[in-house]
Amino acid sequence: MSQIRRSGLQTEVINFYRKCCKAVRKKPIETRNRFQQFVRTQFRQHDLSPRDHNAIEYMLRRGKRQLEVYENDNIKDIINS
Description:
- With 81 residues, the chain is mainly alpha-helical.
- 60% of the residues lie in helices and 0% in strands.
- The protein has three helices and no strands.
- Helix 1 packs antiparallel against helix 2 and helix 1 (8-25) runs parallel beside helix 3 (53-70).
- The longest helix is centred in the N-terminal third of the chain and has 18 residues, at 8-25.
- It is elongated.
């Protein structure tokens, strides 16, 4: 079985997605679905070229700041608008 070679940026995006999914599992069970949908929407809504490193890095920085807010234990629910 051959292993896919990924760039450092691809690996960083994948690891960030995993971190988001872990954060969702820490939310109350009744709101996890909304958080999971929010994460999926955020990752899918941006149609970026894999070669657009500046935009990807910007989105990662923005996403990490957003995740810090949503990881807060006081945030129990999210309204997906």
